[in-house]
Specification:
- This is PLAC domain-containing protein.
- By secondary structure, the chain is mainly β.
- It has five domains: 86 residues, no CATH class; 45 residues, no CATH class; 111 residues, no CATH class; 49 residues, TSP-1 type 1 repeat (Single Sheet); 39 residues.
- The protein is built from four helices and 26 strands.
- It is elongated, with a radius of gyration of 38 Å.
Amino acid sequence: MSTYAMCVRYDGIEVDDTYCDAMTRPEPIHEFCAGRECQPRWETSSWSECSRTCGEGYQFRIVRCWKMISPGFDSSVYSDLCESADIARPDERKVCKNPACGPQWEMSEWSECSARCGERSVVTRDIRCSEEEKLCDASARPLAEKNCTGPPCDRQWTVSDWGPCSGGCGQGRMIRHVYCKTSDGRVVPESQCNLDTKPLAIHPCGDKNCPSHWLAQDWERCNTTCGRGVKKRIVLCLEIVNGKIKTRNAADCDVAKKPLEESTCFERPCFKWYTTPWSECTKTCGIGVRMRDVKCYQGKDIVRGCDPLVKPVGKQTCDLQPCPTEPPDDSCQDQAGTNCALAIKVNLCSHWYYSKACCRSCRAPHS
């Protein structure tokens, strides 16, 4: 606030300054004072793209409470300030309706490549129509299989030291770990090594001489990733002669006591992720977004049981050629009460609030 002097007549009427003695004129005084507190307000970012490329989806935006703390200093504040001021909060989500999806192809993820090192094989995926098969365009049906190449032929079995012997002749076992490793020492899935040459992980032990007896290795992985499958293990007839292990024919061991070599196994139920083909990019130049629907099926039913850790992405950026520079929008005006000069000085134009509130200043070329 400021004080200023004026020359007045004895009856209080203001007259020209020359009637007063300039030597006795009081100096103007400027003092800071607190004006009334500024009201908080809701500010919103622009709406996101629709979450679906067809049918009914959602758009989202950021809603924040803002308040001018002091002249030139506008800041986001806790939402309760706006809520306690009883200002209606703008919606953060709204429904967006695109043309109905209609029948479209949906595909599962590709299977694992089963090719051995240096060999070629085929990976497959399931293709289904979101409605009756005949309603989908047969000419646009995605491929259900493609070629794949096995891992490089540098994979080798490596083993740890044997553990202690766990018992007497015929019952004793020594255990070690067997890994499939690359030439630079990385451990990779066992399927990348030649399973026919896999070293034994369980060894018989006991006396120097042990009669022939059965020895079962650990079960291999179930041959399916979901539903009912089969698991196998190696069962050998072995004898220890003078401390050395000899392989014998199955007839040399008691066939009635032979452990099972094969068993049924059940992995989690067969829930499978399916995706639709990618949509067009939302922009024709610059950086846009493309989307696809991601659904979880069990048989023909859409369910919720799929593994969220392997959920395919439903949205990704698409980087196209750069856009030509756009002419400035002359109708764009800075918002009163926002210190845009300060916003530019501290490089706040990239912030969604200031790019909107100071749209004219932020678009102007700065030296």
